[in-house]
Amino acid sequence: MEKKIQNLIVKESLRLSATYGLLKLRALEGETLPKMLPGQFVQVEVADAKNTFLRRPISVNFVDRENQELWLLIRNAGEGTAHLIALEAGDQLNVILPLGRGFSMPGDKSKRLLLAGGGVGVAPMLYFGSELKKAGYNVHFLLGARKKEDLLELDEFARYGELHISTEDGSMGEKGLITQNTALQRTWDNIYCCGPMPMMKAVAAYAMRNNIECEVSLENKMACGIGACLCCVEDTTRGNTCVCTEGPVFNIKELKWGI
């Protein structure tokens, strides 16, 4: 798949909460975005920030082909991401895209699909859900957060599938962890998951117990995004594997999680 180092312009910068921001980027006039698959990510340069010479890996949140837009959902986790959230319309970003291996399409359109995301881990699920709906699949989303204010893009998700929601404080949806949601009492053929590691391991364990095909999108620390620095290595059935090149999406059967 073609990869580019490309300057993109900020069309819109939205502050979704005190912690999260959404950047809507578009290609410069006369340019187009490369093909991107759900579950892939980009490496974003953080210019003009004092302590951030490394690029930041950000999941592809959504791709609007008609308007040549790329959406990036960003959690404020430090100086680099704070700088990105503070960008304004008209600013430019240098981006390497697309990177990594994305989610697998399930094949049979009668498959019962559950896309589970916690916190900023919901980001890749929006684009994946939109592509699944476009292809004729029936999609369900299981979305979790600590509180109502941390639930992201609910209106967008509702365009592509049925929502199941959990908040730890019970301020919206079911009270408790995402793994306690009654949606998991239903029958599923495939589960796709991204979020905090304890959540992904719990969902993966549930899938293993119930013989459900499951893929997870790992959020290991990445510096280069191209397999050179080895800081994102994960122990798999194929040995130590770079998440940035062989992932970030893995079938749980590949991971040595001991679940």
What do you see in this structure?
With 259 residues, the protein is an alpha/beta fold. It folds into two domains: 4-99, Elongation Factor Tu (Ef-tu), domain 3 (Beta Barrel); 113-217, Rossmann fold, CATH 3.40.50.80. The chain is 16% helix and 34% strand. It has a seven-stranded antiparallel sheet. The relative contact order is 0.14. The model has no long low-confidence stretch (mean pLDDT 95).
CATH topology call of the largest domain: Rossmann fold
CATH superfamily of the largest domain: Nucleotide-binding domain of ferredoxin-NADP reductase (FNR) module
**Number of contiguous helices:** 5
- The arrangement of helices and strands along the chain is EEEEEEHEEHEHEEEHEEEHE
Question: Which tags fit this structure?
Answer:
16% helix, 7-stranded mixed sheet, Rossmann fold, 16 strands, 2 domains, 34% strand, Elongation Factor Tu (Ef-tu), domain 3
Describe the SSE topology.
Blueprint: E1 4-15, E2 20-27, E3 41-44, E4 56-59, E5 62-64, E6 69-75, H1 79-85, E7 92-99, E8 113-118, H2 123-134, E9 139-145, H3 154-158, E10 162-167, E11 174-175, E12 190-194, H4 197-209, E13 213-217, E14 233-236, E15 239-242, H5 243-246, E16 249-251
Parallel strand pairs: 8-9, 8-12, 9-10, 10-11, 12-13
Antiparallel strand pairs: 1-2, 1-7, 2-6, 3-4, 3-7, 5-6, 13-16, 14-15
